[in-house]
Every structure is written in structure tokens, then in C-alpha cells.
Amino acid sequence: MVFYLVELNKELEVAPRFFGPKLREEIDRRLRQEVEGTCNGKYGFVLSVLNVIDTGKGLVREGTGSAVFDLKYSCICFKPFKGEVLDVVVTSVNKMGFFAEAGPLQVFVSNHLIPESFEFNTAHEPCYQTADGEQKIVPGSEVRLRIVGTRVDASDIFAVGSIKEDYLGVISVPMPGPSPPPPGPPGAYQFVELTQDQKRRMYQLTSIFENADTTLQYGYAERLRDNRGITYGFCGFTTGTSDGLMVVEEYTRLQPNNTLAGFLPALRKLAGKGDRFTGLDGFEAAVRKLASDKGFIDAQWAICDKEYHLPAMQWCRKVQCQYALTKAQLHDALVNHGQGLGDKFSVDYIFMGAQKAVNGTPATGVDEVTWLRAFLQARKAMLASWDAVSAVSTPRIRIYQKLVDLGNLNLDGPIYFDLKKRNSTDGKPVWQVQDVYYAVDWCYPKLAATLEQPCPSKEQCCAIWGVCGKGLHYCAQGHCAGGACVGTPVVPEHVDPNPDNPFGVGGDSGSTPSPSPPSPVPSPSPVQSPPASSPPPSPAPALPAGCGQLLQDVDFVGADLPDGEIGFTDSMAACCKACGARPECGVYTWNPAYQTCHLKAKTGWQLKTVKGVQSAVKPAAPPSPVPSPSPVPSPSPPPPSPKPSPPPPSPKPSPSPSPVPIPSPPPAPPATCGAAKQDTDLNGADLLDGGVENVLSPDACCAACIAQQDCGAWTFVALSELCYLKAASGWVERPVQGLQSAVMSNRNTTVVVVDPNPPPSPPPPSPSPSPSPGAPPSPSPGDPNAPYQFVDLTEDQKRRMYELTSIFENSDVGVRTDLQYNYAERLGDDRGITYGFCGFTTGTGDGVMVVEEYTKLKPNNPLARFLPALRAVAGQGDVFTGLNGFEAAVQKLGEDKDFIQAQWMVCDDQYGKPAQEWCQKIQCRDALTKAQLHDALVNHGEGLGDRFSVDYIFQAAEKAAGGTPATGVDEKKWLAAFLQARYNLLSSWDSTSAASVNRIKIYQELLKLGNLNLDGPIYIDLTAPTTTADGKKVWQVKNVYYGTFLIYSDPNDPNRRLELIA
Question: Are 244 and 238 in contact (CB under 8 A)?
Fold first, then answer.
């Protein structure tokens, strides 16, 4: 790798507030921030700015007051060249090859540039390894390679490497740690960075544990005697490891003449030496004086991000964590424990403990909350057993456990801390975190002590314990009156009434226990109760009549009504009363820990499982009573005279009934959830928009069904946290392992049970009539209730699959031997030259594979001379260097059997087998689904970080359908979602891709026509051709027909043609 010392120029605009003695420092800082790490097309990557040679004269912009400086500076750059040997770190591995990094440079090594002794293996993780297992290429491996090609853009450099030479290959494998996750559901994970507020809270959480203050302590410095030297700064840097040295070095780089620079020789000697302080006398005092020094603060942030935040997010990507709370915990653990390097106190060992406890990570399908709890428990056990200093850090784990219990996975605010003062061994007062509270209105004795008047109402009591008057009375429930608590004053055991406690009210250190079900309040509820004649409600609800069914440990999140939070609510019954008073209230939630009631709208909320929280759905109001007709005269009373003629004597009619008061029909009892059946699915009859996401328990699924008036049954899928709401009838009960279902009580249902072992049906009394000519045969995808077993396509189905792809790729179709083997064209889609019946491209990796296979079958072939160029441009997109004449050579090989065989081998290996693997993962049965997966892989390719890839289509389809066939989703529903997701992607990508949407419409039409078995005949209607610049006609697919005869108005129309897939 070539490094350059060069002089470059840069225009920099500086705001007026920086004009003054520190103007030069601001210019230096901004210059480094804006240019270091960027790519210069001529000299490569700018590694480091050495110094500013000339600032020039700042020219003031009119109207803004800012000055623009034309800077000249010297810097170190590097640029890779073909033929260089580099040591790189592998970042990802797939069957096309592997990606690696050398600093900011990304290198791709194709599988044909890896020695034949390495084979691609996915048994445990994607890797290349030798047959004896001695050498292995996995993410994190260090590899020595030779650069065989580069591409330089205006803002980046890409390189292609090879390890297929002597003295190249694996140098080392990664150290023990969490194994890279095996491939999960396609495209399911996408890392999302923390928001600014979440990141701030994350650092404040760490600060409260490190320094007992949510204000970041840049000037903190102390000798903790924890074998790490002096701990200082907001992120807990230490002189006995290495990060303490890094901060001072970074500070000195930003601000050379600083008060800590003199300690650098001592810091370098003591790095890694633990509790040694030689040469550091006065270091703590010097740090404390720099609490507001901008350069010192910037240095701390730079090292904290580099050493802790970025590695924490890398760990998060490995385990595929989603929640902000998990990310914050990983950051806190790295600050507290550090990474690997053989240290059994490190995060690596905590990861292994958590992974062992729950048998995996979120990347392997373990629920993230379950994994986070296991991680916290493993970390707590390690801290408790390590040493006395570490053991006192266990509250930082307990606080995170409490936040998990409270359901604050998104790391929302406000968060309150309860701290208590204690004396350390040297007699110094030290604040200790006692407890944490989230999203609760609270007051503290110090505030209450300032009240001059007695508390006149419960609004002046705390949400958890009331506080009133100067006597600092704590009320368990109720309110303050006349300066005293109504009820028995209770002082919680560890709440310190000392006004010096600065952070809020305390509480039990564990999660708040759920209170026993409250008794009905004596006051009448405004919600109309059923009359005495109505059937009694189910005994399951523990609420007064008219309040709905009690849902324990269920929270309705979101959709709060205006002024819908009511504090000091002592029971669910009181919460019910408040909901009943507001017609727009549809559901309500009561949190006994904080005595708060939350009134919600009828729709728009989400369900979560939160321990201790209680919820209910307000029953629909009973119909208005029908006015009694007794006081109202009959609409047409018979006149007294003349009397009507008597009826004939036989049959004797019944006398006309007298008007009798008609009682109002009793309102139906509220719907309740029946007992859930384990390993049971209610298949079909899903309500529109009946898939509810993020449902964590069967109770929450039941709550969603109660809230939707037309819901008569439900199915809960724990694996994907989905709840399917069903109609009252029309579904079919079937056994599916892992699912739970229930039928609602008091809602009419029609149950159809499928026997997993049905008796054979009796033969029909007479043969069925023959189908009419051209009528489609019944699809036979297999019994959906049987255990899944992959069935390969028949030869006819496979032929039709390839012909469908050919009609889209080349607007032509025929029998298998007539596929477009000699097609070749430059489409301008950043994939180079597209050729062959399967759409191979020179700009990716499959184009060179075909020619390599062809050369193996026929060494002296017309395409062999293009191999060096094909290898150089593989992965380079629309690069055609050395490929002049390639299309013409391909077009002459339409009858070459070896060329045809090479195309079939690569198409089957790169698209046919992967499509089969995708199908087996989602457990697809229908031939139409299998054909669509194959077509999508040919059109989009797999993964590799490409947002045009099949991975992202799978992700969108899984989200839209609420899962896959493997998780119980109907296959037709999933295929429709997959086709729509692919259609949306093609429509929005670029003009070339948008023209391909017809291939999606054809599959959508086949799905609508019910041709799930991919039967024939299929007719493709091609029409309205356009003409390219070279006079070539381009046919467009207009429609598809299946199982029908077609008659055109003008069969001789030159702009219309019909193709048959038999």
C-alpha cells in the first residue's frame, strides 16, 4: 500500500463566534473533522492531517458575517495499487466469496480467487474451510491477499483481491467470543442507530453508575483501588489500562500545549500495569481543572465512541439486537468490563454465559428480551463473584433489570433515580443508586416540606406514596386531608426522608408486585350494567359488571385520549368508572405501582406484556331500550262497531293477542376469552387487518380480539409475536405445534375440526363429469396439515418455470432447447453485459462462472480469451474493459452444447438450488411459489448488502403477511405479499427495473387464476412492441391466460403475438 505525504487545499467557512484567540484551533479542528477519512480520487484516502501550512486571508461573506478561508494543508494519504499484498480483516462471507477491510479500504475476494482446497460450508456459519478443518475463513479472520484490480470513484475506492498464490491466505482466526450468527430469516434484520435522545440517556445511565450524576462528569478523577489505576472522565477511562492514555494522546493532538501533556511519558509506561501511579502525582487535580475545556471534552468523546460505543454497536449487529435498551446495556458493559484479550472479566465471557443460558442469541431466533435478561444475569453473577469493588456495581445491573420489567425497551424518558447517601471506607459520603422509576409523575419529601398549607386533595400526594405537609407523611393509598394522610401512614423500608436525597422518591428494589384484584367500589358505575334477567358474566373477569374482562399483565400502548392520564387512581374499578364517563374511551389500563389510570381510544394502540399492569376493554354499550307499547295506543285498533264477520269454523283461529308491554332485550354478556388450546391453529377466516404485531402473550391476543367487535376467535404465534384475529365462523381448526388458539365466549361460532388422521372418504356414487376442454386442473400442492416435506418440481413444472423466466428476460419462449442461450446485451443497469437464458452478468459474479465452467468442458472455446477481463470486472458493475467483442462471440454459440450445459450448471447452482433452500426455509409447497422464488433470484440476486436483493423482498413480505408459511401464514397470502413487495421494489428502483413489473403482474394473475400447481397450457399475450435505435423489436408482456381458449380479433396483427407454455 502506497502512502503519500501531500499538500492539498480546502475552503472552510467559520462562523463569527469563533473569531478570537482560538480561531486557529477551530480551523484545525474543523479541517480534521471534515477531511480525515474522506477519499481523494487522485491520492486515495486522507488518513491524517499533519498541519495547516497556510490559512490565507479570511473573506467575510456579506449578510452572514462568516469568513471563508482558503486553506493549504499537509496530510498523509494512502492508495492501493494492483499487485500489492495486504493484510485484511474479513467482514462477511458468502458463497460468492468474502469481503474484507484494510482500514477504510473494502476488498472483495471472489470464490474463484480462493484456492480449490477451500470449500464453502454453512453447517454452523458461512465460511470457507479446508477438508481437514485446519484453515478457516470466517468474519474476523485475518487474511493476506494480493490486489488484482481496483476501481476509484470520486468518494471511494474498491478493490478485488486474490489468495490463490503462494504465501497468501489465512493468518489468524478471531478470538473466542459470540459466534457470528447463522443466516436468520431472509432480510429480517436491519440495524438502526440510536436517536440523539436515546444516546444521551444511554450515556447518562452509565454516568449515574460511574459518578452518581446524570450530568456527564468530564472533570471526574479518582483512585478506586480496582487494579485499574486512576479512573477519570465521563466514560470511566483508566490509566492502568490503555484508554486513559488514548484520551490524553487525542487531547494533545487536538491541543498540543495542554496541562496533561506532561503526564504522557508516565501514562505510556503505566498503560496495562493496573494500580501503579509512578509519575502521576497531580494528575487528578489537573483533570478536575479541565472539566469545561472543549478540547479535553472532545478527546473524551472521540475515545469513548471509538473504544466503547462503536464496538457495542458492532456486538449488537452480531447478535441482531433491535431494542435501544439492549444497545445501551452493551455499551455500559463494555465501559465496565472491556473486551476480550483473554480477560475473564470481559464482555466476551458475559456473551458466552448468556448464549449458553438461553441456547442462542436473537440472531438464532431467541427472543431479544429473553436474551437481554440472560445477559444481565450473567453480568450480575460475574460482578458479584469477581471482587469486593466489582460486587458493589451490581445495582447497575438491577436498574437495567427493572427497566426491562417496566417495559422501557425503547429507552424513553423520563427516568427517575432514587439515590441514598452512604459513607465509604475512607469516610467520604458516596451516593448509591437505590431504585429507578420510569414514566411516572412523582414528588419528593423535600418538595412537600416547602408547603405552607395542609394538603387539601389527593392531587398533592405522590403517585406511589402520598406526601403531605411538613410532617412528611407517606400514604399507601388515598389522599391527604387536613395535613394528615387518610388511611394508615406507611414509610417504605429503604426510603430516606432525608431532604439531601436529590433524585426522587425511592421504592422496592425489585419489580413492583401485582396487587390482589381490587374490590368493586361502592359508588355506582356510570357504565350501564346488565339487568338482573341477563345471564351472569363469565366468572373469569374480576371486575364489576359492565367493566369488561380483567386482563392481567397486559398494557395498551399508545392512542391515549387527551387528558386521559388520571393520577391517584386506587383500583381498576375506579379506572373503569373514568372510562365509562367518556364515550370515546374504548380501552383502559391501570398501573397499580404508580396508581395511574390511562384512558385510550378504541383503536390505534399496541399490545405489550408488562408485569403487574392491568387492562380491560370497555364493553359495547347495550342497545337503547325499546319504548314499551303499553302506554301508547295500538297503531290500528279495531273499531267497536261494526264487528268483522266471524271466520270459518274450521280451523279455529287463535284470538288476536292483546297489546302487551314488550320487555327490552337484555344486552349480550361481554365477550370473554375461552381456554386457549395449545398447539392449535384456527386456519382461515382472518379479519381484514386482523394481523396484530408485537403481541407478547396469549392474554394480549385475547385483549385484541375483545376490542374488535367482529372478532370471534384468535390464534397466537409466540415465535413471531403475532396475533391473528378471526371471524366468528369459517375457520378450520388444525394441529400446528407452537401455536395457541381460542374461541370467544358469548360470540356465535361455527367450528370445523380437521382430523389429522381422517378416515378414507367413501367412493363417489358416480364418476365426476369430465372437465370442459381447457379447464384448469385442480392444484395439488400437498396436504397443508401434513408435516412439511419439500417436494421438487416435476420436469414439466421446471420447464414452465424456466420458460416463464425466459419470456420476461427475452420476450421469447419455446421448449427447453429453444431458450435464449445466445442472448447478450448491455442494459445499462450497473451489472455489465447480461447474457444467456438465465440472465448471467459480467458485472456480478455469475458471468465469469459460466465461462469458467464452459472452459472446463471445452478448454479451447471462443470465450476463454475473455477470462482475465471477466475476472477483473467481476463485482465492478458497468465496467467493460477487455470485453469488446464478447456479445458477438456469445451470439454465435446458441447451438454449442458445452456452452448450453455450462449455463444450466451455473443457473442451477446459483439460482435453482438457492431458490429450493429459500423454499425449504419458509416451507412452501406450491409450484407457483417455487417458480416465483427462482425468477426473483435470477432478477435480483441474493443479499450481499444490496437493497435490490431477494433478502429485502423477503423482509417486506414477511412484515406485510405477518410471517411465512413456516410460522402458519397461508401460503397464498404470503406469495401475494412477496409479489407486491417485489412489484414495489421494481417500480421504485430505476427506469430499467420499473419496466420489469410486468413479470410480477403475470405471476399475480396466475395466483388469481388459482394455478398454484403451475399447470399448462399457459398463454402469454405479447403486444405493442417498441423498436430500439438499432431497429430491434422489444415485445412487452400484456397479459397471461390459463386454462382457456383465446380468439384474437386480428391474428395477423404484426404487433401482437401469442406464446404458448404447454
Answer: yes
